[in-house]
Amino acid sequence: MPATAPAPLASRIDAAVAAIVPRLVAWRRDVHEHPELGNREVRTAAIVAAHLRALELDEVRTGVGVTGVVGLLRGATPGPVVALRADMDALPVEERTDVPFASKERTTWNGESVGVMHACGHDAHVAILMAVASVLAGLRAKLAGSVKFIFQPAEEMPPEGEEGGARLMIKEGCLENPAPGAIFGLHVTSILQTGVIGWRAGPAMASADSFRITVRGRQTHGAMPWRGVDPIVTAAQVVLGLQTIVSRQIDLTQEPAVVTVGAIKGGNRENIIPDSVELRGTIRSFDESMRDDVHARVHDTAENIARAARAGCDVCIVKNYPVTVNDAELTHATLPTLERVAGADRVIPMHKISGSEDFSFYQHVVPGFFFFLGVTPPTQDARTAAPNHSPLFFVDEDGLPLGVRALAHAAVDWLHANAG
Ligand SMILES: [Zn+2]
Ligand SMILES: [Zn+2]
What we know:
Elements: H1 7-33, H2 42-54, E1 59-64, E2 68-74, E3 77-87, E4 106-109, E5 112-115, H3 122-138, E6 144-152, H4 165-171, E7 182-193, E8 197-199, E9 202-205, E10 207-216, E11 220-221, H5 231-249, E12 257-265, E13 272-273, E14 276-285, H6 288-308, E15 312-321, E16 324-326, H7 328-342, E17 347-349, H8 359-363, E18 368-376, H9 400-417
Bound molecules: zinc ion (2 copies).
């Protein structure tokens, strides 16, 4: 049996995608102009749900993982189940692009007034998956098997104190009834030109964990340090000590890792040694056992340096996202599809990305492949284009139809290859 679906079906997919481009762009602009932060994607989710219902999908569940929407399309004949995922949330970024549909939204996030922008391009993901749903719904009579559409909130983390994102959607059953045999997702990126798809098998994006270290000293006069315990000097040693975990202690030939201290807070005037100093930072890794090892070393380093200074130390590490690991077999099985869709020379292997993705949670349950879609126009250099999360992040809409084709063909080819 050929790995890819029959050519007539493939050409029907491409014709349907070509026909839907104006709506694809309109959806993307509408969602872009009305961005919503994580767990607040009420309007976006309503648009998605209305669309899936209009397509007469067999099931449309709303409110999965707060604002998530899950649609199920059953083909005319039974067969395996494949899932496609798009994230819907925007970021607390004030948009500075000059597109006519630029966001003017403002809201409150973790107690602060912020601008809101689709600075990570999830607006494009929503529009792409809506278009894929249209295209595949139109081919339902030819499909053997089912396609599950997962529109997920809060990929960029829910507000403090709330659950959300992929983890919560899985908890609320998005990968059950029916359970998919594979899941695909994509991310638009400034680092690739329009027309290019980037991929990587195995660990592709980092795990992301945050830590908070409180060094507890004893407050005293700045002129008489011997009368107290100085948490500032101790914290400085901890910062430097933490840097030796990556540079001196872990096997960098295996996988890279990052330990960054991003915030340091303590003291309020020049001649008082304060009681305590707080450090906050992030840990990235590409291997789950190395991740645990780095965590243990952060504990050891901070606690033992503090002990040497006779200071106290509390280390709290919160595990956020696991390593995004693309299933090697699924990745390599999908590459011929992507190469057919984009052109072999436009499907390129990528370096690891030290950013993270909560698509990784799905991959812990079902083999998944997460790839990248270029959206930097030919007039710009992808090496210098404003990156995702920048207030100037720009999506070339000419790059979006390829995303629709890639997901639609990947889903149909996977169903075909895994039938019976
Ligand atoms: Zn992002
Ligand atoms: Zn993103």
